[in-house]
Write a structure and sequence with these properties.
The chain contains 11 helices and 7 strands. The protein is of the alpha+beta class.
Length: 458
């Protein structure tokens, strides 16, 4: 198989620039015998933006931009500024007839896009699968953009799968940086790129110009990617028509091209090596600074962690001391209350009356429901909602209030005493428990409830 690269700007038969509507089939294809209409939607279309970033187009998107529209927009973004400046100079020089539009640039032979048809193989010799062809193209265009993207702007690329042999149409424009900004010129672009003639010491000619050097560089580049894809590509030249080189001229040119390519690659490698070394030095410097900063931060965190642990220990100890001090004080208060009120509380609770008949009568009375008149009297002394309750309920409530009142007079706030703690107080007295034990049990109940509700302990 051979790789075919055909570059051109104008149709050799008509002399007109290549149509921007051909590649994405924006014309009546029913008259084209070489196109299989059912495969048109299989074609791959790529639009490049002004930064040479590739964007694949959805063929089924009815609103997609055509290549004609896309190239017009890219030309406008790239060259409108320089074109306006040149047109203004023409007006100032009283030659407005020299002014050009974006469409003029697209349609002029010297400023229109260059189109390359890239193909591997043929119907007779066979050809690789389309994905291999596309992969080789992508590798090629990435390499060109990386090294020469400031001067070569890809516009679009289309792989035609609707013809007999898959091939790719690549359209690009050569640019240089002029006094008005980005402008179009192949020769000036090659000059900015540093591409020399095959024989720099000889005069420029059809076979001795920078474009010949670059074209051979492109062929070599694609050949390298073909070999990487395990394709056997025929490199032996076909000889010769009248317009072709002689065998000796071809061999001489090939040697010059290979030497040029080797020099360029060596220069590129050297430049890349210098850039890489500089990057390594800068990164090592940043890494050292980062490690120093990280070491300081780690030390700071260790110190803070140690301080936090010490604070936690101090807080736990302080909580324990507060709880113990509070419990001791509360126990002392409860004990004093019990000693002071023991005779008053114990006697009526343990034994209110003597004799079993009196007990029976009292038991009945304690269970009697309170009527509305009595309930109203109870309400007047601070016991509302007692209707339907028993005498025993009222006595129990009064007993609890007396205990609460006694505790409050002794300095224990009602906020830290609940009904369960009062019940413990009453039960322990009725059971005849030792005063010290009663005081300890009650104060413990008060203390736990208070600390729990104030979140001092958990």
């Amino acid at each position: 198989m051979r790789q075919t690269n055909h570059n051109g700007r104008v149709n050799p038969n008509t002399g007109a620039v290549y149509s921007r509507k051909h590649n994405d089939r924006q014309y009546d294809i029913t008259t084209a015998e070489n196109i299989v209409a059912s495969k048109v939607m299989d074609n791959i279309i790529i639009h490049y933006d002004v930064n040479n970033n590739a964007h694949r187009i959805d063929n089924f998107d009815a609103k997609r931009k055509s290549i004609d529209e896309h190239e017009h927009e890219i030309y406008q973004e790239l060259f409108e500024s320089a074109l306006k400046s040149q047109n203004q100079r023409n007006i100032d020089a009283r030659h407005p007839e020299r002014n050009k539009s974006i469409d003029d640039l697209l349609d002029a032979k010297n400023t229109c896009p260059e189109e390359t048809i890239f193909q591997i193989g043929s119907l007779d010799d066979g050809f690789p699968p389309p994905d291999i062809l596309w992969h080789i193209f992508e590798c090629y265009q990435k390499d060109i953009i990386e090294h020469y993207g400031d001067n070569i702007h890809f516009l679009d690329a289309v792989m035609h799968l609707d013809e007999s042999v898959p091939h790719i149409h690549i359209r690009k424009v050569w640019t240089y940086h002029g006094r008005d900004g980005l402008s179009i010129s192949q020769n000036k672009a090659l000059e900015e790129m540093g591409i020399e003639r095959p024989e720099p010491d000889k005069k420029p000619s059809k076979w001795n110009n920078a474009k010949v050097t670059f074209t051979q560089y492109e062929r070599k580049l694609k050949l390298a990617y073909c070999e990487a894809a395990n394709l056997e590509i025929e490199t032996k030249p076909k000889y010769p028509g009248k317009s072709s080189l002689t065998k000796e001229e071809y061999i001489a040119e090939k040697l010059l091209e290979e030497n040029m390519i080797i020099r360029q690659k060596n220069q590129a490698i050297q430049t890349e090596l210098e850039n890489t070394n500089q990057i390594i030095l800068e990164r090592n410097h940043r890494l050292q600074n980062f490690e120093k900063a990280l070491s300081k931060h780690e030390l700071w965190f260790v110190q803070k962690e140690s301080q936090l642990k010490a604070v936690e220990i101090d807080l736990r100890n302080e909580k324990a001391q507060i709880r113990e001090s509070y419990s001791q004080k509360l126990t002392s208060i409860v004990k004093e209350i019990i000693i002071e009120l023991f005779d008053k509380l114990l006697t009526p609770i343990v034994k209110r009356f003597e004799g079993k008949y009196q007990r029976k009568v009292l038991d009945v009375m304690y269970q009697m429901a309170i009527d509305s008149v009595t309930a109203e009297k109870f309400a007047q002394i601070g016991y509302p909602n007692m209707q339907g309750r028993t005498i025993s309920d009222v006595l129990d409530k009064a007993e609890e209030d007396d205990i609460l009142d006694a505790l409050e007079q002794a300095g224990v706030s009602r906020d830290i005493v609940d009904d369960d703690a009062i019940q413990i107080f009453i039960d322990k007295l009725r059971e005849g428990m030792d005063i010290n034990e009663v005081a300890k049990c009650v104060s413990t109940a008060f203390s736990k409830d208070y600390f729990r509700r104030t979140h001092i302990i958990h």
